[in-house]
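Schema walk-through. Below, the input block comes first and the output block second. Nothing else is stored per chain. Lengths vary across the set, and this one has 458 residues.
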Amino acid sequence: MTKYIILAIIILIINFIQSFFLPSGGIYADSLSYFEIASDLPNPVTNLFPVGYPAALRGFFEIFKDYFWASKFLNTAMILIIFLFSYMKRFYFRETVLLFTGKTFLFVFSIAISEGLFVFLLYFLLYYLYQILAEARHSYKDVFAAAFIMLIMFTVRYSGIYVYLSLLIFAVFFFFNNKDKLKQKKILMVLVLSGLGIAGYLLFNLKTFGSFTGENLRGKPEEVLPIYVLRDLLGTANAVNPYIGLKPSSNSIASLAFQFFILLIDMLVFIYFLRYFKKAKDTGQYDFHKALWIIAFGYASCLIISGWFQQIEEMNVRMMAAANVCVFFSFLILYFKIETSHRLIWRVGCFFLAFITLYSLKSPANYFENKKQIEPQMSKFKNKKFLYNNERGGEDAYTTYYIPVIKKTFQYKHTNNQKGDIKQSIAGSINPKIKWLKYDTVKDKSQVLYTSELSFKK
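--- output ---
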């Protein structure tokens, strides 16, 4: 157990310092929207994103007076709480630590996005579902806790409704296949109570903002071209893979060939995981594992379909975070229960922790130096209301990689490493009231701060 405690401490440190070496500190376009909503609280002016994550950010901002540090300490607090809770409650501590060696937890807790808080809450929802489905407890505290967490998940990400719908699908199968009246009653109560809460939040949005989930603000979805459908399907299939989530932005033949190679790995991982899932019948926890898998597949299916009808980014590690956590956690629990030796999964977890960390820092930068250069320039633009990156399509920054085995080099354009994107992210975190624009549509250009007006020293 000692080595898992040490690994947990290492993970905590890595997640805390990792974004220091990212050009924008792990702050991206969506982060700026969250910062803007947080700065408007307690009187938000938009429901484009739900208020849960901005409210958490605002709480930490009141302590640190900086949204970068607010997001950083919020993420760190969530990781620490999960580890302490798992250890003190004896809720699969080893499995929980290894869950953090995978791609999802390492990603969502290192940058400023709502998925971190979403999967944090998901972890506790799974705990209370476990108490309901796998433990013979007569208390209803688990029911109220699960229902409350389900509601809060929806206030963090609207896609929480897909977790709810997936749990509803599970309940249908559960009512037909399990005759335990007490468990049936508890699952039904979770769905009814959380459903009422979600409905109440939607009605609040409708009354306050005139829409349920900001659907009138999202714009029209991109044209559904075959290449983007293919990329979405590949991204969704990758949800089963706990460690590898590489997805080049290019649509070249070489890029697609690489993604199909990853798909082959995903299929092998799925078959391997399925072998363990089939053995769950002998553990007395089959209903719990069925719930995890149904949530994973239901969430992934609903999300990819919704992506074709509204303007959201393509399916990737971030979008599939909840699905990946459910499948991976189920596998880890079953692996430790079935296998007598756990050396292999320990070594694999440690290897990928190192690999994913090094990969994310393959082009290390100094966030604090970048911020130091941009911060004094922002005083000249206090009256600007909008922020627009007008440096897209200009002189792109490419990273050169050397492959020693074949002694070849190649260049790759990392979207978030472009100067305009970095300037936009840092400027927006310094002034959270400024609204970033996807398109330069404001008629009064004097109100717009263009990223070309900010500069880095060469």
